[in-house]
Amino acid sequence: MRITPSLLIRSNLTKMALHPPQKADKLIFAPANDQTNSQADQYTKGALERSQLDPSPFTQFHSWFTHAQANGVHQPETVCLSTASLPSGRVSGRMVYLKELDSTGFVIYSNFETSKKARDVEGNKWASLTFWWRELERQVRVEGTVERLSSEESQVYFDTRIHGSRVGAWASRQSQVIADRSVLEDWVGKAEKRFEGEERIPVPEHWGGLRVKPVEVEFWQGRQSRLHDRFAYRKGEGKDGHGDGEWTIDRLSP
């Protein structure tokens, strides 16, 4: 085929329409892993069907989690905990570790006296968790209400932490403004002196477990062309109207 000037112009215009030049005020625009390729990666590692799902979202999560552990996912317990303050509705998120899963919810541990999450959940009991397992192209979203674990429950996990982490839980005033690191080191020094020679350290009153009790859990499997497989478990209202009914499962459009 003979390439004419008009054909070249049309070709260039087509490319410009598909990939418009980046504006000067955009620091990042449509990033991709390969800087020479403006198209995002395609998800090709799996599919998810209704028949593969367990009736319980907790059992289903456990199945996916153990699969992630066995298939090279880096720290699959890493999760984004999101909370919102009222009345502003301002949302904040942070990466934490999932430490427990039982038949009622997902448990993380943290400071609940000075931290922002503590202030948020004091006035707003709703929170969400988001897991992202890149190696499997899977995501799990959890939405629900939160409750504090008792000191007795928290002590069980607290005893598994290394000595330095237990001392640190006593020392840190999480999210409090400090002049420099020497302030933190001073707090740690005082806590170390307090518990010097003690193997068993009691869990601080301001520290402990937070259980997210889900009313919705979504399992997401990446697919090609962004046509992902999504299934949402939703808890129906029980006889008391408090969301203690049976779980239903719905496929969601991507």
Question: Would you mind describing this structure in some detail?
Answer:
The protein is α+β, with helices and mostly antiparallel strands and 254 residues long. 26% of the residues lie in helices and 27% in strands. It contains six helices and nine strands; from the N terminus they run ααββββαββαααβββ. Strands 1, 2, 3, 4, 5, 6, 7, 8 and 9 form a nine-stranded antiparallel sheet that branches. Strand 3 and strand 4 (106-111) form a beta hairpin. Helix 5 (163-171) packs across helix 6 (181-194). The longest helix is centred in the first third of the chain and has 14 residues, at 5-18. The protein is globular and about 60 Å long. The protein starts with a helix and ends with a strand. 20% of the residues are buried. The mean pLDDT is 89.
Gyration radius, rounded: 24 Å
What is the mean predicted local confidence, pLDDT?
Answer: 89
Q: Treating each run of at least 4 consecutive H or I residues as one helix, how many helices? A: 6
What structural class do the secondary elements suggest?
A: alpha+beta
Oligomer: single chain
Question: What proportion of the residues form beta strands (DSSP E)?
Answer: 25-35%
The low-pLDDT segments are none
SSE run: HHEEEEHEEHHHEEE
Shape: globular
Largest sheet: 9 strands, antiparallel
Report the end-to-end length measured between terminal Cα atoms: 41 Å
Helix content: 25-40%
Strand runs, count: 9
Region (Disordered): 235-254
Pathway: Cofactor metabolism; pyridoxal 5'-phosphate salvage; pyridoxal 5'-phosphate from pyridoxamine 5'-phosphate: step 1/1; Cofactor metabolism; pyridoxal 5'-phosphate salvage; pyridoxal 5'-phosphate from pyridoxine 5'-phosphate: step 1/1
Cofactor: FMN
EC number: 1.4.3.5
